[in-house]
Amino acid sequence: MYHRPVETAPEPPPAILPPVVQPRGLDFLLKTWSGRIILLNTLVFLFELYLSPKVDINSIPVSVLIRMGAKESVLLAQGQWWRFILPMFLHGNLLHILFNNWALYAVAYQIEALLGARKFLILYFLAGLGGNILSSVWSLNLSVGASGSLFGLLGCAWFFERTIQRRVKQMTGYKPKAGPYTVMVVANILFGFIIPQIDNAAHIGGLITGVCGAYIILRATPNRIVSQEPKRAYVALGLSIVLFLILAGIGSTPYYVKWRLNRAVEKAEQIEERYFYLDRLLKLDASDSSILWHHFRVALSLKDFTSAYRDFKLLSGETDFGQKISTLEAELTTSEDSLASQWLQERMNEALK
C-alpha cells in the first residue's frame, strides 16, 4: 500500500535581529541600562560645564577633560591607569554628546534586550576599555567619548547579523542582503578615516572587542544559530584578556610613549607642533638633557621667554653649559634673531654676576 509522505512545512529562518519594543520617556531613562548610561553621560557633561572657567557648550576646556580622566598618553605612562576607563563617560562638546547619546538610544536597547542586562553592561564597558587601550597604542592625541563602547555594540550586533545570515543561507539557499548593522559599521569606519578629529583607533578597538564578545557569547550560550562550543569560547576569552593586558602595557609604558613622542617631534612640519610634543616629552622625562636643550631652542625661536628662562635655569648646572650657550648665541646672531639673542645675552650677564 502506497502512503503519500506527509509534507511538513520547512522551519522558518530566524529573523535577523528583529526590533524590540523600546520603552519611552522616563521608563527608558530610569528602567533600562541603555537609558541610565545616557543619563549618566548627560550628568557628567553638565559637571564638565560646571568645572569650566567659562561655560561653552561647544568646547569643553582640555584642562577640564584631563582633570576628569581623559585619555592622555603622558599621564597614562605616569601610572594613571584609570584613564583607560573614564574617557568613555566624557565628551568634548554638545554635538559630541548629542550624537553619542542619540546613537545609544537608537542601538543600545536592542542589544540590551538581546543579551540581557549583565552581558550588555559587560560588553559595553569592555568595548569602551578596548577602544581606549587601542587608542593609547595608536594615537598620542587626547581622547574622550563613548564611541568605543558604541562600536562594541555595533560589532556585536554585526557579528550576530552575519552569523544569522549564514544560517539563513544554509537553510534556504538564499543569501540575504547586507543588513543595517553591516552598513552602519562600514559607514562609520569610513567616516572616521575622513574626519581627522575622530579617534578611529578607539572605534576599531571597540568594534573588535564587540565582535570577540559576540563570538564568545554565541559559543558559550545555548542557541539555535550555532553549535555550543564552550572550549572555543574560553580559549577566545583567555586570548582576549591576554591581548588586552599586552596592549594596555604597551600603551602605558613610558619607553613606548617617549619613543612615539620623539617620532612626532621628528615628523612635525610646524615649529608650534614640534614645541607641543617637546613640552609633553619634558612632562614625561624632565631629566633628559637633549630634550631640554631642544625645548630651550624652540622656546627662544617662538619668543616664549618664560619657558626659556625655566629651561635656562635647569640647564645652567651642566658642565658644558657655557660652551653650548655661546654656540647657540652665535647661531641666533647669524640668523638675525636679535630679540632672542639679546634675551640670551642678558641671561648670561645675570648668571655671571
- Compute the CA-based radius of gyration: 27 Å
Helix/strand-derived category reads mainly alpha
Provide the helix percentage: 55-70%
At CATH level 2, the architecture of the largest domain is Up-down Bundle
Order of helices and strands: HHHHHHHHHHHHHHHH
Provide a descriptive summary of the structure in words.
Helix 1 (25-31) crosses helix 2 (33-51), helix 9 (200-220) packs antiparallel against helix 10 and helix 11 (254-267) runs antiparallel to helix 12. The longest helix is centred in the middle third of the chain and has 26 residues, at 147-172. The protein has helices spanning 25-31, 33-51, 62-67, 73-77, 94-115, 117-138, 147-172, 180-194, 200-220, 230-251, 254-267, 271-284, 289-301, 305-315, 321-334, 338-352. The chain folds into two domains: 25-251, Up-down Bundle (Rhomboid-like fold); 270-352. It contains 16 helices and no strands. The chain is mostly helical. Residues 1-16 have low confidence and may be disordered.
Q: Topology, pairings included?
A:
Blueprint: H1 25-31, H2 33-51, H3 62-67, H4 73-77, H5 94-115, H6 117-138, H7 147-172, H8 180-194, H9 200-220, H10 230-251, H11 254-267, H12 271-284, H13 289-301, H14 305-315, H15 321-334, H16 338-352
Tell me briefly what this model is:
This protein is an all-alpha fold and 353 residues long. It has helices at residues 25-31, 33-51, 62-67, 73-77, 94-115, 117-138, 147-172, 180-194, 200-220, 230-251, 254-267, 271-284, 289-301, 305-315, 321-334, 338-352. It has 16 helices and no strands.
